[in-house]
Amino acid sequence: MIEPIDIEALQPIYRQLDELVGSKNMVKIFEYYRGVQVILPLHLYNREAAKQQIVKRYDGTNQAELTRLYGYSERWTRVILRNMKH
After folding, report:
1. 17, 47, 64, 85: which could join 26 in a potential S-S bond, CB 3.0 to 4.6 Å?
2. Cβ-based neighbours of 81, under 8 Å, separated by 6 or more
């Protein structure tokens, strides 16, 4: 680990990461992704994997809960469940 960390001299993104995950983890992220442009997906969960989990976990009453859990739209979840019946 780079010691000591001068928070005031950090690039803005690393300063934000330092606030979010702490200096130790920020340095790990820096060392692992150094020089790589990272674009984070809008959704935390993979669409196909979420689809499979929604079908698997649906009990007939928990559509809204699954929609919130996986972060996709209610309409998308409804279509998945409708297609499941066919």
Report:
1. 17
2. 54, 55, 58, 63
Helix (H, G, I), strand (E, B) or coil at 42: coil
pLDDT tens digits, 27-37:
999 999 999 99
Residue 26 · residue 18 · CB < 8 Å: yes
Residue 8 to residue 20: CA distance in whole angstroms: 16
How far apart are alpha carbons 57 and 81 in whole angstroms? 11
Our CA dihedral for 59, 64, 70, 71, rounded to 10 degrees, sits at 170
pLDDT at site 2: 63
Contact 13, 36 (CB under 8 A): no
Q: What is the DSSP string of 21-38?
A: H-HHHHHHHHHHHTT---
